[in-house]
Automatic annotation (TrEMBL), chain A:
Keyword Transferase: no
Domain (GINS subunit): residue spans on this chain: 72-144
Chain segments carrying region Disordered: 188-207
Keywords in alphabetical order: DNA replication, Nucleus
Basic and acidic residues composition-biased segments: 188-199
GO BP term (any one): DNA replication
Location(s) in or outside the cell: Nucleus
Family: Belongs to the GINS2/PSF2 family.
GO cellular component entries: GINS complex
Keyword hit for Nucleus: yes
Organism encoding this protein: Fistulifera solaris (Oleaginous diatom)
Name of the protein this chain belongs to: GINS complex subunit 2
InterPro entries: GINS_A, GINS_bundle-like_dom_sf, GINS_Psf2
Main subcellular localisation: nucleus
UniProtKB/TrEMBL annotation, chain B:
MF annotations from Gene Ontology: chromatin binding; DNA replication origin binding; single-stranded DNA binding
Any single Gene Ontology cellular-component annotation: DNA replication preinitiation complex
Classification lineage: Eukaryota, Sar, Stramenopiles, Ochrophyta, Bacillariophyta
Protein name: Cell division control protein 45
Top-level lineage group: Eukaryota
InterPro entries, A to Z: CDC45
């Protein structure tokens, strides 16, 4: 590997701390909590109140209250969403941005009511996998959209934090490398064209200067 | 003071108030599984309330208390301290005692609020507060406890012996000072008071020639009575005695009343030692009184603690049944019992097809979900570590089966194999690890045992046991966990190291693997100390059980149990693990049961002596008619009496019925015991 060139190795998932940051940011979401104590003005025993997730988790750890699952976190709501994801080409917008992290955090503890937290986890995991797969399949289409832009950007409605964490680094790296290759090609072509006195050429097949790794079969 | 069960939560809240923002609690914990479970429960509570706390394994109570009193805001004693006079060792801050050992030293009950004893329901008459209860005039047992309380690692030499004598003389002088002008002091240690006390007590209200300690005691008494009248945050408890002599003083002369009172106090101490509810159960009750009743982890720890108390003879059968019933009700409240409610079971099973599509036609794939640490109660067999060993091993090393079939004899083994053959279990299958036995055989086990076991006298093979789901559908029983942790504690040489390992083993979220018991040498496969302490503990537990059985068998074969007029005694082998009191208790229970079935022993108590470096651990056990009964253990007084009436090196530990004697003095000690019991 020629180390003088920017590395084509992708960062391993999670090694850049992005999933931790996402999990941390998810704790700002507000959830409903039913406290067991009364501390005016906001907490009255038995009365649901909206607090950030980090506060709710603290209360739950100290057995001072219990968290009420948000509306979308139920089998009845998640099953249709899974169906929708499997059939529709676009990502659903009815899930919150941090749905994956929230599910992980909320379903960690055993619950003493009817909801089975493991089933919810399974459902959310399935939804996540379907969405990621859809994004992967649509990736070339997105690339095509981004081709003519200087700063490539594409609007994906309904994307969530978990998918961004998974695909984000790859996307950044890949688009960056692509831009670099394009730029080098253009420079080479322009140099060559200037030497020959021609206009700059685009659209020709890209021959990267950096030797690509050949994969054995 | 006694803290009654309804007010335990107030004791805890007092801890919170005392500690406030920067106080810290010191939890001194005896190395038993019961205390460890209570320690984990307490630690959970304190963590939830953001109170800093230290957890220490304590073998020398006096030293640790002295160390703690300088630093701690308050001290919690788990499974120790109740029978000793704590007012002597710890001044100032508060002590909370969760100790099943009884009788509780009267000074602890009638002290002011500094010493809080968590009291479960106990109908024993307790002598009320008043004269003759000063901290100095302690029972014979606690005097010995005061003098020397090391148990394990310290070196004992003759200097301790001389200090014993010195202290004894010192005590003598103190009492002499107290009762100035009264040269006659009691020589017998059974009497709690001076024989000539009544003269002084009559003058007590008049003459202030009392020594400072007596005055303090009276001040305390007065202030205690004043406090009793005012309403405070913590409920005061009235002494539970209703002596008719006090309420009708006109009928008895003061001297007679004094004598009557002395007799009551004497009776209180000399009836023998017994046990109340285990510390772990007390801690769990405390947790339910606070806001932590929903946590299955705490319930599980209570189950393990109760099972451990039962196994080590601190609970009799009725006690265990009562506590098990309460725990079972708690289990059902937390997670409704699956086996009873089909609808609930249906709700808890999930099929993959339910998640992906609405209709479920054809075959469905059942998903196995995490068990989330659910605790439930089920009748289980009294086989030893059945889930982690083979059926044959489990039956061979089970106390019930082994004693009933007299397995130390070859004829007994043949009977066992015959039973298995009758049930239709091939021997090779029985030697497989239980988890790998044919499922058909495992399903048959229950019905076949019911059919054939009675012929061989194996009637009560089942008992209510508690099981916890760890990981995905693997199950751990409370007995297994208790055995594993106890073995880790018993085998340890470095007390802190093994204490920590046993604490880890109680964490119970990692399921130990089935092969752990098979490979003694191969500890890499999940039975390593660091990797899986519970697995290693199970491996040690089996080893320990084999050692106990081997020791018993060798005693029987060699006829090494000598019978004297008042008791039997036996020198148990040379291994250091056998010198632990807990192990000796199990060995004694095993021997008792063997001989009950034999019909050879009818009544005498048993003393076991085990060599431990330069000392012998001497433990005395009472005989009961049936296994699982409980009789108050009076060996504490006998040992104390014998130790005081002869020269030698002695030390008491936490239990009154266990004493450490120097190796040179053991024989004489036994003779002295016999002589004293003869003359009594």
């Amino acid at each position: 590997m020629n180390t003088a060139q920017p590395s084509l190795l992708l960062p391993a998932a999670g090694q850049d701390g992005s999933s931790f940051r996402a999990s941390f940011s998810a704790e700002e979401t507000h959830v409903e909590v039913i406290p067991d104590f009364t501390a005016s003005p906001s907490f009255m025993a038995g009365v649901p109140v909206q607090v950030p997730l980090w506060k709710a988790e603290l209360l739950q750890t100290r057995s001072l209250g219990r968290i009420v699952f948000p509306d979308w976190l139920s089998i009845d709501k998640l099953r249709p969403i899974l169906q929708q994801e499997k059939t529709q080409p676009l990502l659903t917008t009815s899930l919150p941005f941090y749905y994956y992290e929230l599910t992980r955090k909320l379903t960690n503890r055993p619950r003493h009511d009817d909801t089975n937290p493991d089933v919810l986890r399974l459902l959310v995991e399935d939804i996540f996998q379907v969405r990621v797969e859809k994004l992967r399949q649509q990736f070339p289409a997105y690339l095509a959209l981004m081709e003519d832009q200087d700063i490539p950007k594409v609007d994906v409605p309904g994307i969530a934090s978990a998918e961004l964490v998974l695909l984000g680094p790859f996307l950044l790296q890949a688009l960056g490398d692509r831009a670099l290759l394009l730029q080098q090609t253009k420079t080479n072509k322009n140099d060559a064209a200037e030497e020959r006195g021609e206009d700059t050429v685009t659209g020709e097949p890209i021959r990267p200067k950096v030797p690509l790794r050949r994969f054995r079969r | 003071m006694k803290l009654e069960i309804e007010y335990w939560h107030r004791g805890y809240q007092q801890i919170l108030r005392d500690c406030g923002q920067d106080g810290s609690v010191w939890i001194l914990c005896r190395p038993t599984v019961d205390a460890l479970c209570a320690a984990r429960i307490l630690s959970f509570l304190l963590r939830a309330d953001h109170i800093a706390h230290h957890l220490l394994c304590c073998t020398n109570l006096e030293e640790d208390l002295k160390q703690a009193s300088a630093v701690a805001t308050c001290v919690v004693l788990l499974h120790m301290g109740a029978p000793q006079n704590l007012t002597k060792w710890y001044q100032g801050r508060q002590i909370y005692v969760l100790d099943p050992a009884r009788p509780v030293h009267l000074a602890n009950i009638h002290a002011n609020r500094d010493i809080v004893v968590f009291w479960d329901i106990d109908e024993t008459e307790i002598p009320s507060d008043g004269e003759n209860l000063s901290g100095n005039e302690s029972s014979s047992e606690s005097e010995d406890d005061d003098e020397s309380s090391e148990e394990d690692d310290e070196e004992e030499d003759s200097s301790v012996a001389s200090s014993d004598r010195d202290e004894g003389e010192f005590e003598y002088q103190d009492e002499n000072d107290e009762n100035a002008g009264d040269p006659l002091q009691q020589q017998q240690e059974e009497n709690q008071e001076d024989s000539d006390d009544d003269d002084h007590d009559d003058d007590s209200s008049v003459g202030r020639a009392k020594k400072p300690r007596r005055e303090d005691e009276e001040d305390e008494t007065e202030s205690y009575e004043k406090e009793r009248d005012t309403t405070e945050a913590m409920e005061e408890t009235e002494p539970t005695t209703v002596p008719t002599a006090e309420s009708t003083p006109a009928l008895l002369t003061p001297r007679q009343w004094q004598q009557d009172r002395r007799q009551r106090i004497e009776r209180y101490y000399s009836a023998g030692s017994y046990y109340g509810a285990p510390a772990a159960f007390v801690a769990y009750q405390l947790a339910t009184q606070l806001r932590f009743g929903d946590h299955t982890t705490l319930l599980w720890l209570a189950c393990v603690g109760v099972t451990d108390a039962y196994w080590h003879g601190r609970l009799d059968l009725t006690g265990y049944s009562t506590l098990a019933l309460q725990l079972r009700q708690a289990c059902q409240k937390l997670d409704a019992d699956d086996s009873d409610d089909i609808a609930l079971r249906a709700r808890n099973t999930v099929y993959a097809e339910q998640l992906s599509s609405n209709g479920a036609t054809g075959e469905r794939t059942k998903l196995s979900l995490r068990g989330t640490g659910r605790v439930f109660s089920q009748p289980d067999y009294k086989f030893f570590l059945l889930r982690f060993s083979s059926l044959l091993d489990a039956m061979m090393y089970s106390d019930t089966v082994s004693t009933q079939l007299q397995l130390y004899r070859p004829a007994g083994m043949n009977k066992l194999k015959e039973l298995l053959a009758k049930m239709g279990f091939p021997l090779t299958e029985c030697q497989q690890p239980y988890a790998f036995m044919k499922p058909a055989l495992r399903r048959m086990l229950a019905s076949k045992l019911q059919e054939y076991a009675e012929e061989y006298g194996l009637e009560n093979l089942e008992y209510t046991s508690f099981l916890r789901i760890t990981g995905y559908q693997s199950v751990l029983s409370a007995a297994d966990a208790a055995h594993a942790a106890a073995a880790l504690l018993d085998f340890g040489s470095d007390k802190d190291d093994m204490f920590n390992r046993a604490l880890d083993a109680l964490q119970s979220n990692a399921p130990p693997r089935v092969m752990d018991l098979q490979n003694e040498d191969n500890l890499v496969n999940g039975g390593s100390l660091t990797g899986n302490p519970l697995g290693y503990g199970l491996h040690l537990a089996m080893k320990l059980q084999k050692k106990i059985f081997a020791a018993a068998a060798s005693l029987m074969e060699r006829n090494a149990i000598t019978s004297l007029a008042h008791f039997r005694y036996a020198y148990v082998g040379d291994e250091s693990v056998l010198a632990k009191p807990a192990v000796l208790t199990r060995l004694a229970q095993y021997l008792f049961q063997l001989h009950r079935v034999n019909g050879k022993w009818v009544g005498r108590p048993l003393i076991l002596l085990a060599k431990d470096d330069d000392f012998y651990t001497v433990a005395g056990y009472e005989y009961t008619e049936k296994a699982g009964d409980w009789v108050r253990n009076r060996w504490g007084q006998h040992f104390a009496l014998a130790a005081q009436s002869m020269t030698g090196t002695f030390s008491f530990g936490h239990d009154s019925h266990v004493i450490r004697v120097g190796s040179d003095d053991v024989q004489r000690f036994l003779e002295q015991l016999h002589y004293l019991m003869d003359s009594a």
